[in-house]
C-alpha cells in the first residue's frame, strides 16, 4: 500500500484483503479455526505464522487483520491488535507490559473503569501507581523517575475535557526510559497526532467514533510491531481479549465515513458550545474549541480541533440537570459517545458514580455537569432543543 494516500483514501482502502472471488466489500471470515494442507504446514505455522497465515480466531483472523492494518495506517503506527472492548485494550496495553514492582505514573482525570484498572487491578499484583494532575507538567516531572516503566493518560479526559500535553509529557517520560501509553478516545483517530507527538502506545475504544452507530463493542491497541507482537499479543491471545471477526467487519465499515463524521460532529460541537456560552441557565461551558477554554491553544496545536464532545454545568445542580435531561427529545440519555445520535450523560450518577465525592469534587464532576456527545443531527435543531430544555 502507498504511504502517500490521504486519510479518507486510507479509511476506505488500507489493509484490504480479497479472496479468490474478488469481492468488493470486505469479507467476513466467520470462522474460529483454519485448516492446514499438511501436518508439516500446521507445525510450521505454530512455530512462526506468516504474514497472511492464521491459526485460531483468538490469535488472528483475516477480517480482524484488515481492521488492524487499516487503523494502524491511519494512526501512523507499525501495527495494531484489535480487542473485544475499549477496556480490554486499556487493560491489555498496561497489564501486558507490567510486572510486580514496576512503577506507573497516571493522570488523575480518567474514565471510571480506567481508574479501576490502575487503582485496583494493577496494585493488586504489586504494581506501584502514582497519580498527578494531567495538565501540570511539574507534577509529571516530580513523579516520573528512572524506575518508572510507563505513563498513562487520556489525551482529553472524560468527562471534563482536560487536555494533557502529549509532546511535553512524552519528553519527560522518554528521558527516564518510560513508555507513553495514551487513551485517545476523545481525540479520535481523525484529530490524533499522538504518534508524531511522542506516544508509544495508543488505545481506542472503537465502540465510540470508529463504529459510530452504537452497534458493537470493540477496542484496539496501536504501537510498534515489537510492542504489539512481542508484548501485547502474547498476553491478549492467551487471555482471550480478541475482537470477533463480525465486529471487525462492522468497524471496517464504520471507518469508511469516520473522517466525514468526526469533522461534522466537531463543527456542530463548536456551534453548540458557542450557543451554550450565551445561555443564562448555564454556569460553565467546557469545550477546548472555544477561545475561552484555558487549554484552547494546546487543543489547536495538538488536535487542530475542539473535538466532538461538550461539557457544561447547569445552574441548580443535580435537580436542574435531571430536569434538563428529562426534557430532551432528539438528544438521548445514555452513557456512550461518538455515536451518530447526540447523547447526554450525567457523569456524577453514571460513568463516574463510583468515585468518592471528594474525588468528584477534585475532578470537577458536579451534580450539574452534563457531558454532551454531539452527533450528526442538524446543529440548529440540537441548539433549539438544548435551549428549550434549559428553559
What do you see in this structure?
This protein is α/β, with parallel strands linked by helices. It folds into 2 domains: 7-255, Aspartate Aminotransferase, domain 2 (3-Layer(aba) Sandwich), CATH 3.40.640.10; 259-390, Aspartate Aminotransferase, domain 1 (Alpha-Beta Complex). The protein is built from 15 helices and 12 strands. The chain has helices spanning 7-13, 39-47, 62-75, 86-95, 112-124, 137-143, 166-175, 188-191, 225-239, 245-255, 258-277, 296-302, 317-326, 357-363, 379-390, and strands at residues 79-83, 103-107, 128-132, 148-154, 179-183, 201-205, 219-223, 282-286, 309-314, 332-333, 343-345, 369-373. α5 (112-124) links the parallel β2 and β3 (128-132). α3 runs parallel beside α10 and α4 (86-95) runs parallel beside α5 (112-124). The mean pLDDT is 95.
Topology, pairings included?
Layout: H1 7-13, H2 39-47, H3 62-75, E1 79-83, H4 86-95, E2 103-107, H5 112-124, E3 128-132, H6 137-143, E4 148-154, H7 166-175, E5 179-183, H8 188-191, E6 201-205, E7 219-223, H9 225-239, H10 245-255, H11 258-277, E8 282-286, H12 296-302, E9 309-314, H13 317-326, E10 332-333, E11 343-345, H14 357-363, E12 369-373, H15 379-390
Helix pairs in contact: 1-3, 3-10, 4-5, 11-15
Amino acid at each position: 500500500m502507498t504511504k502517500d494516500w490521504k486519510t479518507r483514501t486510507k479509511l476506505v482502502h488500507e489493509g484490504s484483503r480479497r479472496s479468490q472471488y474478488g469481492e468488493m466489500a470486505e469479507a467476513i471470515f466467520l470462522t474460529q479455526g483454519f485448516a492446514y494442507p499438511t501436518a508439516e504446514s500446521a507445525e510450521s505455522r505454530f512455530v512462526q505464522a506468516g504474514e497472511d497465515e492464521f491459526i485460531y480466531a483468538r490469535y488472528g483472523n483475516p477480517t480482524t487483520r484488515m481492521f488492524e492494518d487499516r487503523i494502524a495506517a491511519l494512526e501512523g503506527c507499525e501495527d495494531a491488535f484489535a480487542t473485544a472492548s475499549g477496556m480490554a485494550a486499556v487493560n491489555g496495553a498496561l497489564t501486558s507490559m507490567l510486572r510486580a514492582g514496576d512503577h506507573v505514573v497516571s493522570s488523575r482525570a480518567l474514565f471510571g473503569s480506567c481508574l479501576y484498572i490502575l487503582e485496583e487491578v494493577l496494585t493488586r499484583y504489586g504494581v506501584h501507581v502514582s497519580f498527578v494532575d494531567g495538565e501540570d507538567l511539574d507534577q509529571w516531572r516530580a513523579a516520573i523517575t528512572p524506575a518508572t516503566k510507563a505513563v498513562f493518560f487520556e489525551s482529553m479526559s472524560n468527562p471534563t475535557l482536560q487536555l494533557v500535553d502529549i509532546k511535553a509529557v512524552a519528553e519527560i517520560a522518554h528521558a527516564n526510559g518510560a513508555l507513553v501509553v495514551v487513551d485517545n478516545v476523545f481525540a479520535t483517530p481523525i484529530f490524533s497526532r499522538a504518534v508524531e507527538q511522542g506516544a508509544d502506545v495508543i488505545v481506542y475504544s472503537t465502540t465510540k467514533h470508529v463504529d459510530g452507530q452504537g452497534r458493537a463493542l470493540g477496542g484496539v491497541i496501536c504501537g510498534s510491531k515489537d510492542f504489539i507482537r512481542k508484548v501485547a499479543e502474547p498476553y491478549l491471545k492467551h487471555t482471550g481479549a480478541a475482537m470477533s471477526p463480525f465486529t471487525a467487519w462492522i468497524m471496517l465499515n464504520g471507518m469508511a465515513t469516520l473522517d466525514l463524521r468526526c469533522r461534522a460532529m466537531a463543527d456542530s460541537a463548536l456551534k453548540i458550545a458557542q450557543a451554550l456560552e450565551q445561555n443564562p441557565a448555564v454556569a460553565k461551558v467546557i469545550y477546548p474549541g472555544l477561545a475561552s477554554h484555558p487549554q484552547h491553544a494546546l487543543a489547536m496545536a495538538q488536535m487542530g480541533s475542539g473535538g466532538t464532545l461538550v461539557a457544561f454545568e447547569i445552574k441548580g445542580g443535580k435537580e436542574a440537570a435531571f430536569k434538563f435531561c428529562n426534557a430532551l427529545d432528539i438528544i438521548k440519555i445514555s452513557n456512550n459517545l461518538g455515536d451518530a445520535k447526540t447523547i447526554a450523560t450525567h457523569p456524577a450518577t453514571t460513568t463516574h458514580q463510583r468515585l468518592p465525592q471528594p474525588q468528584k469534587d477534585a475532578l470537577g464532576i458536579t451534580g450539574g455537569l452534563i457531558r454532551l456527545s454531539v452527533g450528526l443531527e442538524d446543529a440548529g435543531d440540537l441548539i433549539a432543543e438544548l435551549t428549550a430544555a434549559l428553559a
